[in-house]
Amino acid sequence: MEQFIDDLPPMDLMRSEKMTFVQLIIPVESAHRAISYLGELGLLQFRDLNADKSPFQRTFVNQVKRCAEMSRKLRFFKDQISKAGLLSSSRTVLQPDIDLEDLEVQLAEHEHELIEMNSNSDKLRQSYNELLEFKIVLQKACGFLVSSHNLALSDERELQENVFSNDAYVETASLLEQEMRPQSSNSSGLRFISGIICKSKVLRFERMLFRATRGNMLFNQAPADEQIMDPVSTEMIEKTVFVVFFSGEQARTKILKICEAFGANCYPVPEDISKQREITREVSSRLTDLEATLEAGVRHRNKALTSVADHLAKWMNMVRREKAVYDTLNMLNFDVTKKCLVGEGWCPLFAKTQMQEALQRATFDSNSQVGIIFHPLEAVESPPTYFRTNTFTNPYQEIVDAYGVARYQEANPAVYTTIIFPFLFALMFGDWGHGICLLLGALVLIARENKLSTQEMGNYKEKMGIEVELLARRPNGVDRDAHTIGLVKYQDPYAFGVDPSWRGSRSELPFLNSLKMKMSILFGVAHMNLGIILSYFNARFFGSSLDIRYQFVPQMIFLNCLFGYLSLLIVIKWCTGSQADLYHVMIYMFLSPTDNLGENQLFWGQRPLQIVLLLLAVIAVPWMLFPKPFILKKLHTERFQGRNYGLLNTSEVDPEAEPDSARQHHHEEFNFSEVFVHQMIHAIEFVLGSVSNTASYLRLWALSLAHSELSTVFYEKVLLLAWGVHLKPDMILDSSLVLGNVVDNSLSAFLHALRLHWVEFQNKFYHGDGYKFRPFSFASLTEDDD
């Protein structure tokens, strides 16, 4: 058997790639080029040998600061281009290769020029806005002043006719009456302030003026005919022109302070109509000149931004790469005496040849007299986990990694997730009609895969599941002549799904309940057995015979003596058409194993078989719990027997070892109590989990039944009823209802399938305590790395 297993061909995704720990000794003159070539290759994960140093204490901190400053300037250019509404040129612009120093000078010149143009443009825009507001105030305020002047004239005429027509009265008029005679606004002390304010502040502004002057003012307002651009947010704002009439210097001071607090701009408006017209013509002339100047400035600025946009993507990529190279160089140790850089890291075993070729090319291109030393080392720490995936397997690998990254060389659940996950999803989806809708949606996503390839998670999670809708609700054909005994068919009346003769019968729901519940148990037990079998392959791969004898074997015995036996009873009941009560059989297998089964007996010798299986399940519990900790203690005692002296430090054994190197050895003390408690927890968790996990698989039955019944009610009570009442159905409403139902069912089925994989399946063999292989690669750089 072992020879047969050894002869099986290896699976690509079953085990992570073999990794090797390597050391690089790079001369200073070829360090930058060597790291750049390794970044293009993207198969080496560097180890930070300067973790104890702050970022400002590292060797290439100045170069990193320069790159960060250039990145800031490039982001500034990008923001300016987007605000101007310009698009980066997609055409390839021929430009000679430029080094980092020349690029830094060019970026500084472009930034200085752009900042100066923005400053001039802001000043011109502010002047233009002030003139435009002044023009609007002149137009609106003149109407207020003319109307108030006409009102004053009419009041004066009426007063002269009624009161001051008698000459004798004028001679004997009192001082108070003389004060009440109408005079001009200047002689009587009546003044006004005109200006413009945001429309949203008018109500609060008027209320504040009324309270400050105690009602001794007259507030007139009119909306502005034009919107004015805000120089900060570049948004068009609606404003309102106001004129406030008041009397007294104290009121004037208060009104000006309130205008300043509310951000209102005040403009002087003469009372003379001829002066108003003259100022309006002058303001209009200056506005025309400023518009021409602003348009010329915008054209010049857009031309400068266009020249930058043609090279922006290339420059950003160049600076991003340079910064990544210097960040990586800061992870290396700088040897001043030998004038070289020492680095360590992990790389896949298959990539050693490619890396050596890249380093040789870097030595040749940099004209270095000394070559780069590349040699493997032994490491105590666990290597990173690296799986080579494609566009189809990557989403399933991401699902597994979301739970935990696989330990190095551990069996990868993603191999089986690619098949089992869509299968369980289909079991819970429960309706093949909605499955067709989901299939069509998945085909659209596949057709647009290239456009959607930038997303982190692919859209393949569901497209496999919709092709295996086993628990269909509406079969293709109907043949009432078909008859069954148990689940043995004597005719072939339907292509898939259950017998259509159950459709619409009174026993449809009890039959489907029983069928789907039993199928859920069968699939669950098979799924958990697969997980335990994978734990055997893990133990055999790592050479752990203890895990095989004292973990795999008792777990298989315990699970299959109880729930494997239940699965056997389900299959026998289906095949024989027996009416035995399986609940009664399983309950009394524990309570009264020696009692006669009576009519619940399914086969000869069932009672003694149940007693044997129960005894094996009871024996399997201490088998899992006690032997392994005591054997580990014995092996540890024999290994270190007679060693009264501790090992020397690593630096004394190996004088060439780096202080921060991964080659440091750590001798851990064996703690029997900790090992025993861990084994006890693991055994108890498996025993209790066997029951709870089997019950958890009943969610396959519950969700399938719920979704299928919901789809049936929705189809019969909504769609068919709507189509029967209305001659012309509302296709938009019906489509939206169908889509909502499909999305709801898909989400719930996806989440529960995820739960079954993460908890019920992977806890049987999957540790998930590894860490991902994250190599230094230019291809993985994003805008966030700027």
Number of strands: 13
Helix content: 55-70%
* Main sheet: strands, sense, barrel: 5 strands, antiparallel
Structural class by sheet pairing and helices:
alpha+beta
Strand content: 5-15%
The total of helices stands at 23
Question: What is the C-alpha radius of gyration, as a whole number of Å?
Answer: 42 Å
Average pLDDT reading: 81
Tell me, what's the shape? extended
- Stretches with pLDDT under 50, minimum 5 residues: 163-188, 456-490, 644-667
Distance between the termini: 56 Å
Main location: membrane
Protein name: V-type proton ATPase subunit a
GO molecular function: ATPase binding; proton-transporting ATPase activity, rotational mechanism
Organism: Sphenostylis stenocarpa
What's the arrangement of secondary structure elements?
Layout: H1 2-7, E1 19-27, H2 31-41, E2 45-47, H3 61-83, H4 100-162, H5 167-171, H6 175-179, H7 185-188, E3 190-198, H8 202-212, E4 218-223, E5 228-229, E6 236-237, E7 239-247, H9 249-261, E8 265-266, H10 273-329, E9 333-335, E10 340-348, H11 352-365, E11 373-377, H12 393-403, H13 414-429, H14 432-447, E12 484-485, E13 488-489, H15 508-541, H16 545-576, H17 582-591, H18 606-625, H19 627-639, H20 650-653, H21 672-696, H22 699-725, H23 731-761
Antiparallel strand pairs: 1-10, 1-11, 2-10, 3-7, 3-8, 4-7, 5-6, 9-10, 12-13
Helix pairs in contact: 2-10, 2-11, 3-4, 3-10, 4-10, 8-9, 12-13, 13-22, 13-23, 14-23, 15-16, 15-21, 15-22, 16-18, 16-21, 19-21, 22-23
